[in-house]
Amino acid sequence: MLQARTSIDLKKANTTFIQASAFRLPFADSSFDLLISTRFLHLFGSADQHALAREFRRVLKPGGTLLDDVDNLVSRWIYVIPHFIYNVVRYRRVAPDSNYNSPGQALRLLNQSGFSSPEIYGIGGWHLYFVKLLSTRLAYRFGLLHRYAPFRLLAEQFVLVGKAS
After folding, report:
1. For residues 51 and 25, is the Cβ–Cβ distance under 8 A?
2. pLDDT of residue 24
């Protein structure tokens, strides 16, 4: 939060920062039309991910939208060696502090937490770097394929979209 506060002009942005537990958000039920969570759920195990998703659902208005991202379990296994090297080089550790979800787990997370019509889109992948060496345009087009099965299995993350029931 400190980084956010120092990088924004609060007077111009009309922004308020609130520090609170995500397990007990300090907002009334049905307060928001949209909730965006990023680089967060992967820090928690399955039970906590479900508790957080239920809390997200609580503060969303009926029909409100949740946008969230989770790390892809399948791509972590496909790219186990490059991820191992990345974690050793980048973080000086063997095991990352992440809990990965398969596409099915991610969709069940939303379904079981009170979201209807959940959608999942694959995004990103270190392998796109090598395609980019050939062509940025080709890398972009290939990256768009991650949104769809079976290419989403190559994506490093998923964006989850759910409508509050």
Report:
1. no
2. 97
